[in-house]
Amino acid sequence: MTSFSGKTAWPTGTECVAKYNFQGTMEQDLPFSKGDVLTIIGVTKDPNWYKAKNTLGREGTIPANYVQKREGVKSGGKLSLMPWFHGKITRDQAERLLYPPETGLFLVRESTNYPGDYTLCVSCEGKVEHYRIIYHNGKLSIDEEEYFENLMQLVEHYTKDADGLCTRLIKPKLMEGTVAAQDEFSRSGWALNMKELKLIQTIGKGEFGDVILGDYRGTKVAVKCIKHDATAQAFIAEASVMTQLRHNNLVQLLGVIVEDRGSLFIVTEFMAKGSLVDYLRSRGRTVLGGECLLKFSLDVCEAMEYLEVNNFVHRDLAARNVLVSEDNIAKVSDFGLTKEASSTQDTAKLPVKWTSPEALREKLCFYCFLPSDIPSPTLLLEIYYQQGLPLKEVVPRVEKGYKMDAPDGCPAVVYDLMKQCWTLDPAVRPSFRMLREKLQHIRAKELYL
Ligand code: ADP
Ligand code: MG
Fold first, then answer.
1. Taking ligand 2, which is a single-atom ion, which protein residues have CB atoms under 5 Å away?
2. Can 278 be counted among the known catalytic residues?
3. How far is the C-alpha of 216 from the C-alpha of 193, rounded, in Å?
4. What is the pLDDT of residue 349?
């Protein structure tokens, strides 16, 4: 790494987001607009200038102080949409937290006197005022005139206007150990500008929100909209995991928009051909042919190998969570359950341990096909399986050690791999890397024919 007067230069491959427009004055300059994503491709003699490439592949020099380095959001677990929410604390504790006095400093706690209600505590001219927030018919109110869907909307309202309180809300008292999600996404270069996002039409219904086709600065994007505050909180973790991942076979995060009102928009690349399940179903496996099915298996396997190598566990791998791009590349999506394996534990062994059906069967998530990333038996099966028992009934049997017959039309070499993946003993089960190597071999030698 090159170092300039103590400051470490950004290495090649670093991603930056433009903070301002740059028109460029010299011929070698690369002009850009605020919000553009640029990738560093080298240093120049001047530490304030870098060689960079834009998303269209155009190269040139850029001024470092016009751009912001983009980083992975690491503190996923601590990110909060409501960092001012302190849960069940007493009136005294709240007053201590709001000390020293600072007019407009506030927090929200659960009411001790009225279970189910909340209390808004605001510091005002040396005194702390406690306002009861009543919960009535699914809505929240302080004055019983103005009602709100959730605490975020309420806080947003009183941030703009005191509206009867002793002061408007100015500064949140952050709960210890939390980071305001919005600030963190901005700081790390992942916050997008709502004004530049056009929502065009709904293209999917997810468990927790709609997926909408959008246009972000001239590019088609998919936008996952999460309107419910508690769910949004869960998806913050998903988005923060996605900031750390970059692979051609993972659906790429483009950015996040956190709205004051508690809505969350997760913007990703648009996958024109939809989910792999629908793709396989609507076109038919025999029509698609062996090469295509093998290519999809390989695509997914490469993504999973990348996660495996980087100590991430997906835990919800299934064909419905794989999307197909315009140019027929399969990419894994839905990182809602993805976890970074803790670095404090034995990382060399962890992925295997974490992903074993034995370890996770108990924690089976309600919409998981399989609780973990067992090297892709279900997925291979899903890609090749055509008829007979519904897959939902097949999978539990496979988990118990039952090895089903080869799906119709499944090449023997692929079926062999499937069987290896079904091995319940994790020591014998192939890793995604081995699986990928074998699939590549099958492809290169055209053994799928
Ligand atoms: P859930 O996991 O809650 O079901 P998904 O994120 O899988 O929600 O999205 C639901 C559907 O929306 C998908 O099956 C797919 O058809 C569509 N979809 C999701 N993300 C994209 C995307 N990036 N591009 C195109 N379509 C998408
Ligand atoms: Mg899904």
1. 321, 334
2. no
3. 9
4. 28
